[in-house]
Design brief:
Elements (H helix, E strand, L loop, with lengths): L2 H25 L8 H18 L2 H4 L3 H4 L4 H29 L14 H21 L8 H26 L6 H30 L3 E9 L3 E8 L12 E6 L11 E2 L10 E6 L16 E8 L12 E6 L3 H13 L6 E7 L8 H10 L2 E7 L9 E2 L4 H7 L8 E6 L1 H13 L7 E5 L4
């Protein structure tokens, strides 16, 4: 099945599952004496709740999804659907109160019956989920603490909401509706079991260990891993994995990184990690022999899934890690397809892999265009940011079958994508990966 058809099938299936509770409401016999706006409020609540529950699916890193959709795209959809779920759930009590102001008593956590209190508690947990996700950095919350809270709030939302739905018992009194929600609950519980128990148990059987910690320019370290008692991991250059370092994979403290090593070497795996936070700032102190468990590989940000007749790589900062994986793979296969690499950094001394890129230009049909925000005195190269003008000066516009890979922070991806579009590049040729997916 072609990838476009697979995507369409999965999207359609996801939509059917989300809309199924509303479909049953419409088709099943309605309780007598119900007003339209009251039913509309219930329908919005059902849809918002279903959206919340099925967020386990895109974020569960299921192979049949990660092999079909771009990984950062999956997480962007997760973020957008979570926001939509919040407003749908918020509209549920608002419509009920507007339709009948007496329903305001449901907000009384001390006096309302538990069937209504559970709904309020579910919304409070949902609010906590949204606030800690959107303003995590402003709240100065560590990634690990945020992930723990994220899971606690999610389970609280689903638990209280289920109790609310079944205790209110209007539309769920219909057996088909009740069966549907029970099936949903089973699916969500199975996803939680898979993510937090089954997958970690599988990872325990294929451990790795740190064999080298190599310093790089730009406050970056290359962490080199080797398998312990097994044949290692096959991956495609440009893919992503979630290594858990120094602890069992049951702990919620894994971090996503792109492979930096060339493909075809399952027993020597490298991740390039820049010091950008509490955990990453400790990488240089990791001891040789530290155990590591790798959840991966994932994603379709690779040349095998997007073949072309020439490539353009565009990266900012540590977004160069998957690019280096691709370039190193090309060098090992003596692949002489034309490649242009636009590489944005703050200064010349902080250009990670600078010397190796010089060597690769001798081996490959490669042109590296360095773009510096703060260039040194006498710099004659590009300065500032990777703008449409910078792209226009160096791109081969006659390469109609070239493929473009962009990796970096979301603002850079948006600017570069817009610039490529202005230059007449079809967006079907452009593939991007945001390196901050949390």
């Amino acid at each position: 099945m072609k990838s476009s058809l697979r995507r369409a099938v999965w999207i359609a299936a996801y939509a059917v599952v989300l809309l199924a509770p509303i479909g049953i409401m419409v088709l099943a016999p309605r309780p007598t004496g119900r007003q339209f706006w009251r039913d509309a409020a219930v329908g919005l609540g059902y849809l918002g709740f279903a959206l919340m529950g099925f967020q386990w699916v895109p974020t569960g890193r299921l192979p049949f999804l990660t092999d079909t959709f771009a990984l950062d795209g999956i997480y962007r959809v997760h973020h957008n659907l979570s926001r939509a779920a919040f407003f749908l759930v918020l509209a549920h009590p608002i419509l009920l109160i507007v339709q009948n102001p007496y329903n305001f008593v449901a907000l009384n956590l001390l006096g309302a019956p538990w069937s209504l209190r559970a709904g309020v508690l579910a919304f409070i947990a949902l609010l906590g989920l949204v606030v800690t996700s959107i303003w995590r950095q402003w709240l100065k919350m560590s990634y690990e603490a945020w992930r723990i809270l994220h899971n606690i709030f999610t389970v609280a939302v689903l638990g209280f909401a289920f109790y609310h739905i079944f205790r209110v018992n209007y539309f769920t009194s219909h057996p088909v509706q009740r069966i549907l929600w029970v099936i949903n609950l089973v699916v969500w519980a199975a996803m939680l079991l898979y993510i937090r128990l089954i997958k970690p148990l599988r990872l325990l059987k294929v451990p790795y260990k740190i064999t080298e910690i190599l310093p790089e320019r730009g406050n970056t370290w290359t962490m080199v891993l080797e398998p312990v008692g097994h044949g290692g991991m096959d991956f495609k250059a440009g893919q992503v994995a979630w290594p858990s370092v120094g602890h069992a994979p049951f702990f919620i403290s894994e971090h996503p990184f792109s492979f930096a090593s060339p493909e075809g070497h399952p027993t020597r795996i490298q991740f390039a990690i820049r010091e950008l936070g509490d955990w990453t700032s400790q990488v240089g102190t990791f001891e040789i022999g530290t155990p590591v468990y790798i959840d991966g590989p994932y994603g379709i940000f690779d040349m095998e899934d997007h073949p072309g007749e020439g490539y353009t790589f565009i990266a900012g900062g540590i977004g160069s890690a998957p690019v280096m994986s691709m370039l190193r793979t090309m060098a090992e296969h003596d692949d002489q397809q034309p490649v242009t690499f636009f590489y944005g950094n703050r200064n010349w001394e902080g250009v990670t892999f600078r010397e190796e890129l010089d060597e690769l230009q001798e081996k490959l049909n490669l042109k590296v265009v360095h773009v510096l925000e703060n260039p040194p005195e006498g710099w004659e190269g590009e300065t500032g940011y990777i703008t449409p003008d910078v792209l226009a000066r160096h791109l081969d516009r006659d390469c109609t079958k070239c493929v473009y890979f962009i990796c970096g922070p979301l603002p850079m991806i948006k600017i570069v994508s817009k610039g490529l579009k202005q230059l007449g590049v079809s967006m079907r040729q452009v593939h991007s990966e945001q390196y901050d997916m949390a």
